[in-house]
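Justification of computing resources. Each target in the renewal requires a structure prediction run like the one illustrated here; the chain below, 55 residues long, is used simply to show the kind of job we budget for.
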Amino acid sequence: MDRLLTLRQRIKQRIEHTKNQIHATHNRAFIDSVLIEIDTLNWVLNEISQYSIKS
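Resulting structure tokens:
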């Protein structure tokens, strides 16, 4: 269970780091790819949370 907590913290840090990469001057393709990464990380975080609840 401790590993899941560590993984959740790392994913949250990665989401914050990735959000900080977005700037209005970036082109739309870059922003879209970063938003996809954030959505994917949020999905993984949600799956981990559901797994933690079931265990």
